[in-house]
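Batch 3, record 17
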Amino acid sequence: MSDAATPEVVAPEAPATLYGVLLSHSRGQRVLHPTREQYVATVRALLADTFVMCADLTAVDYLTFPGRTLPDGIVAERFELVVNLLSIERRERIRVRVQVPEADPSIATLFDMYPGTEAMEREVYDMFGITFTDHPDLTRILMPEDWEGHPLRKDYDQGRIPVQFSTDFAAKDVAK
Amino acid sequence: MGIVGDIQDDGFGGIPHNAITAKLEDLVTWARSRSSWPASFGLACCAIEMMATGGAHYDISRFGMEVFRASPRQADIMIVAGRVSQKMAPVLRQVYDQMMEPKWVISMGVCASSGGMFNNYAIVQGVDQIVPVDVYAPGCPPTPETLIHAIETLHQKIEDGELLKRRQATGAGANLHVTEIPRGAEPVPVILGSR
Amino acid sequence: MTIEPDVHDIVATIREGNEAEQGLKPRSELTARELLREVGAVLRMSEAEAAKLGDLPVDPSEDQTMIINMGPQHPSTHGVLRLMLELQGETVLRCKPIIGYLHTGMEKTGENLTYMQGGTNVTRMDYLSPLNNELVFSMATEQLLGITDEIPERAVWMRMLLSELNRMSSHLLFMATNGMDLGAVGMMIYGWREREQVLRFFQKVTGLRMNHNFIRPGGVAADLPAGWRDDVLHLLEMIPPRLEEYDILMTGQPIWRDRLQGVGVITQEEAMALGATGPILRSTGIAWDLRRDQPYLHYDQMEFDVIVGSYGDAFDRYAIRLNEIRESIRIVHQILDAMPSGDYRIQNKKVTPPPRARIDESMEALIHHFKIFTEGFKVPEGEVYVAIESPRGEIGCYIASDGSATPYRMHVRAPSFVNIQCLPHMMRGGLVADAVAVISSVDPVLGEVDR
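Prediction for the assembled complex:
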């Protein structure tokens, strides 16, 4: 992706930051890593800086891959919230990744800034169990209301029914 | 009311046959098979192929079926076209229950017939777990030719009167027998893309 | 954003079962603050301004409103969407879309399929433009692999050709269903007639009419068959006069205009705030098309116009899609001229299986083929988000890889999932009969909404 507006390059020893949070690059795309406390302020700063559209809000459960690469200083947690923002004016994208701990899977909502995240946050709640404080309607959106469990978590089974083959034709009861 | 009782017990097959009643039964089944109206239950990709079947090129209007009735009360065949999710299953059953007898079900596509490629928590593994199915049409999605073949198979069975007789006898769909295949010592699950 | 409602009130009300799970509580039972939040949050206005606009003329003598349910099984051909509408007479006050009736667990399934099989899964999300789904998934995989620049030219141009033809077939289906929903029942037949021609071409090239799994990481699955140019030219000659027919039947026709103009209006701020993309965003006047603004493949070398509306109503969206078919025809003409010869997939042993003839001759080729199709190729660790312009808007694919042969997390940002959030704002103050027109103009595909 284009980094037409390159961030201020700080001294080589210090890690790169943008809007006060750690910045990294992933396959040429810019990624910010705020903590949960910095999250809302960072997004507000991005909103003020022409990133007016929230393209996508999703989450990842890193239960079975805790050793992923993260910039120094970021504590890896079980869940990671991923927000992709889009600036129409500058034709740029930026990604925000926030670590959300398993013990307290909740984070602030972006509904006030981007009302389009209402459905996306509901999906994250439904699929991962991450709650969003102050979300206007935090209910299940894809699964039935009384479903138990959060399907996209890694400890939730896919639910395959194994196919049972039998070539023992004599034993099979074939109805004529 | 002997004749009425016979019909109620056994359908048209129960009437003591003579030339007139046999012709009457044939007439009724002939009419039923040629004017069966589908209830639109288009869910996913198969619905698009079902609509293509209704289009000008494949034209199920030749078979009297171009009127997709939105109201299940007015429909004869329910073509379940697409994957049925856990949330949709009660709706499916409700629509099926609202249809008036005689009614038939075509399970269109592999997702409706068996869960298809989605062997997971979210999809009902075959709508025959919910409604009795008369004809299964395989394909992902079945081309309109396959669907027409399935419809014609069903029409043939309607015309023979077989299905209604059997349903009365067994209470199920087209001779649905679920047999348990005895497991070996250890069932070997087939998993796609194993690591 | 200056509305600061008493958050605790609202949260408490919601938690105490304000909305019976998927239900809708009549507005008489909601506090004014909650309604303002609904309206003001989107419009980003001050509370005073929102208060002026937030109230629809409600007959004071008639205090009762009616909540009705539309769907999930209903004759409008857009799939299993359920709408709860609160009506005052015929006027729609509020609308709540309830989805999930087609939830297939595709993202979970995708975690167990290799990257070559992933296309079969992703292609069934937006089943009206399956090649676009496959394209975005393949592009994301290639970006993780780092081979984006090494895809052969012919493969890139083939991808563009198929993507544009898919845009045409999807918009033709929109013409058909939009026409039928609004009463021009003959449009269903006409639109499908044209679409069949395009699908016939797809069948010739990919083997299937729908859900092709043809665009795969590394290129495409097979080369174009002999005689493809004639087929494409036949399409390009046949469709424009038919589009003129649609213009006669619909665009200039007074009934059509009355039914669509001024219906389902959405403003620029609303559309951007809700994340709407595609024809919805362009109908409000914002000229945002990823093919031109963040070009992928070789769209930067193509000459085409981005169609933009000015009123943000349903008629604009209809006209935009009709003209996008014409623009796609223009692009396909250019692709026809520019199609190079060459490989149709990257010749990288890690990613591409060997040609089938070699499997008979060489043991290594056989093993190589076996490994790619059973185990799959491994993709280096990382995460990436790639977005392209599908007929419905921005479709994006976010893949997080842990270095193994299957994606660790595969998420597709579906345009219809986000566009459906526009429905309540488009329907407010309209009539029930316009609800169908509005849904049709948003053109949602429930397969990608629910995934």
